[in-house]
Design brief:
This protein is an alpha/beta fold and 285 residues long. It is built from 10 helices and 8 strands.
């Protein structure tokens, strides 16, 4: 099909060196290699640095409220399950205010991909502790150091029902692109947590920090127990060893795939006002 141009005329408004540039570049490459046309892709986002993602890709997009990228994405998928739906959010957006949506959408197993720009800090609001900030780290909201146990997205993903759970590093673009390809091609809820350095407000989790610690895991991703061991490996070693790659994968029925209402046609293809709901009303009245 040739190279597809996902570039837009808008200039990316991120700090020079931000890992978000690499995330967008890898996603463009992944969609190209999967030969998915721009008109068949919808990207939803919340608020934060990651929230600008739909603005920088020539696809359909929807920037919702803070923490609401996933319910928007699920609504889009239900309206037209033939679309490739990708949700984008940050660690604060998705694992903080959006954590309730995160947990319940995982267990429903919608066929959509969730890419989290995980920089372990609130970057847009200039450096407050986020759910994934490491213990003892001093930030604007934790001047004496973080005392809360960091949120573990890999473990929550595996336990919560996500059927594809992976971690990538924004400093390894080729590997990240491959993970995104596998996530998008996967039939079910795919979580891709990207370790994305915030060069302006996180002086601990830098490119050098992750380069020294990240290694590509080669375990069997269908082994749930081994996957959980990998998920807990980073905090267990005080982040001295951080496995990246596909941690867990399973095949399971998707939520929308089990709905009889859209078995033959997508909702957007159905004619309004033609359905006979008399029996439904009779049974419910």
């Amino acid at each position: 099909m040739g190279i597809i141009d996902f570039t837009v005329k808008e200039k990316m408004q991120w700090c020079p060196g931000c890992g978000d540039f690499a995330i967008i570049g890898s996603l463009k490459a992944a969609l190209n290699e999967l030969e998915i046309k721009p008109e068949n892709v919808v990207i939803s986002s919340g608020i934060g640095c990651s929230g600008k993602s739909p603005h920088y890709l020539r696809t359909y997009g929807f920037e919702g409220l803070h923490g609401r990228a996933l319910p928007v994405a699920s609504g889009i998928k239900l309206a037209n399950h033939k679309l490739t739906v990708i949700a984008m959010g940050g660690d604060g957006d998705g694992y903080g205010i959006g954590s309730g949506h995160f947990i319940h959408i995982m267990r429903r197993n919608y066929d959509l991909t969730y890419i989290v720009h995980d920089n372990q800090i609130y970057g847009l609001t200039t450096g407050q502790a986020s759910p994934t900030t490491q213990l003892k780290v001093k930030t604007k909201t934790t001047p004496w150091g973080v005392i809360e146990t960091p949120f573990n997205p890999m473990a929550y993903g595996i336990i919560g029902g996500a059927t594809f759970v992976a971690r990538a590093f924004a400093g390894d673009v080729s590997h990240m692109k491959q993970i995104m390809k596998e996530a998008i091609a996967h039939k079910g809820f795919a979580l891709v947590d990207v370790l994305q350095p915030c060069v302006s407000f996180n002086k601990l989790n830098t490119y050098d920090f992750f380069t020294k610690r990240c290694y590509k895991t080669d375990h069997d991703p269908t082994d749930k127990i081994k996957a959980l061991e990998k998920a807990f490996e980073a905090p267990a070693t005080d982040y001295e060893k951080i496995p990246i790659g596909v941690l867990y994968r399973e095949n399971a029925p998707t939520y929308e795939g089990q709905l009889p209402q859209i078995k033959d046609r997508a909702l957007v293809e159905q004619e309004l006002g033609k359905a006979d709901i008399s029996n439904l009303l009779k049974n419910m009245m």
